[in-house]
């Protein structure tokens, strides 16, 4: 998803585009891997030193609610990472280093179709697999 598409979605939902909000979007787009809120804050503070972590979380939650960002829940010392949604996918998350690897195929699609056939109206889902990457599993 491009910055202009995200901005259009935000405006389409009736929200303003503030300089801080734009900086948060830019930080997300520039990140090499899905960042934590703290990593987004560190990037945003380079240009907006007074921005607080609560502002970053508020905006990440807004971006998540409108479907621009997905939250990746971790089971280690970090709580979550956030990723600009480019396409629907799931993650394999290393419990050692916290690396989140994208899984290319949705393993729940056939189950979702079965639920829809039973009359359920599905509005979304999340699926994460937890384990250890090859590097971290060496030390186990």
- Order of SSEs, N→C? HHHHEEEEHEH
Report the C-alpha radius of gyration, rounded: 17 Å
> What coarse outline follows from CA principal-axis ratios?
flat
Percent range for β-strand residues:
15-25%
How much helix is in the residues? 40-55%
At the first level of CATH, what is the class of the largest domain? Mainly Alpha
How many individual helices? Answer: 6
If you average the pLDDT, what whole number results? 86
Total number of domains: 2
CATH architecture of the largest domain: Orthogonal Bundle
Strand order of the largest sheet: 4-3-5
Distance between the termini: 38 Å
Please report the total strand number as a whole number.
5
Return the CATH topology of the largest domain: Arc Repressor Mutant, subunit A
Briefly note the structural class of the backbone.
Answer: alpha+beta
Question: In the CATH hierarchy, what is the superfamily of the largest domain?
Answer: Winged helix-like DNA-binding domain superfamily/Winged helix DNA-binding domain
Low-pLDDT residue intervals, each spanning 5 or more residues:
none
The profile of the biggest β sheet is: 3 strands, mixed
């Amino acid at each position: 998803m491009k910055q202009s598409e995200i901005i259009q979605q935000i405006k389409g939902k009736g929200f303003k585009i503030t300089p801080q909000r734009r900086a948060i979007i830019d930080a997300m787009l520039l990140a090499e891997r899905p960042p934590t809120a703290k990593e987004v804050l560190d990037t945003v503070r380079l240009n907006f030193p007074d921005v607080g972590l609560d502002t970053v979380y508020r905006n990440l939650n807004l971006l998540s609610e409108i479907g621009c960002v997905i939250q990746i829940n971790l089971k280690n010392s970090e709580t979550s990472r956030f990723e600009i949604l480019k396409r629907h996918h799931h993650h394999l998350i290393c419990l050692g280093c916290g690396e989140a690897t994208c899984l290319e195929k949705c393993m729940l699609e056939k189950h979702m179709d079965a639920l829809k056939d039973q009359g359920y109206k599905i509005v979304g889902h999340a699926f994460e697999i937890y384990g250890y990457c090859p590097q971290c599993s060496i030390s186990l």
